[in-house]
Amino acid sequence: MIKVRTAEDVAWEMAAQGAGCCICFPPENFRNTYGLTVTPLFFPDGTPVMRNTWLYYRRERCNTNLKGFIAYTEAAR
Fold first, then answer.
1. Considering only CA atoms, which of 2, 63, 64, 65 is closest in space to residue 34?
2. How many Å apart are CA 64 and CA 52, to the nearest integer?
3. For residues 17 and 45, which has the higher predicted lDDT (pLDDT)?
4. Domain extents for the chain?
5. Contact 58, 67 (CB under 8 A)
6. Gap between the Cα atoms of 56 and 36, Å rounded
7. pLDDT grade, residue 75 (50/70/90)?
8. Is the dihedral of CA 5, 10, 12, 17 positive or negative?
């Protein structure tokens, strides 16, 4: 059984359970408690691969859970 503690743990937990592999952009404070092989990605010139997070949603559908998720992602910047 896969037990997930937080939403961002889904891919790591699935990979740890043998359900495949993942390419993730973990936070700087990520602790590898899953025993996974973690390899940083770099461009040929040596700069690290970075990404932006985009979130599209309808304001009329913005409930308490979505507001919490938005606040969480904005705080992680």
1. 2
2. 24
3. 45
4. 7-75
5. no
6. 31
7. confident
8. positive
Rounded distance, CA 14 to CA 42, Å? 24
Specify the pLDDT at position 28: 75
Residue 12's pLDDT is what?
76
Number of residues that make up the chain: 77
β-sheet bridge partners, residue 42: 48
∠ Cα 25 32 70 (to 5°)? 45
Residue 6: pLDDT above 70?
A: no
In the 3-class helix/strand/coil scheme, how is the chain assigned residue by residue? CCCCCCHHHHHHHHHHCCCCCCCCCCCCCCCCCCCCCCCCCECCCCCECCCCCCCCCCHHHCCHHHHHHHHHHHHCC
d(CA 17, CA 60): 38
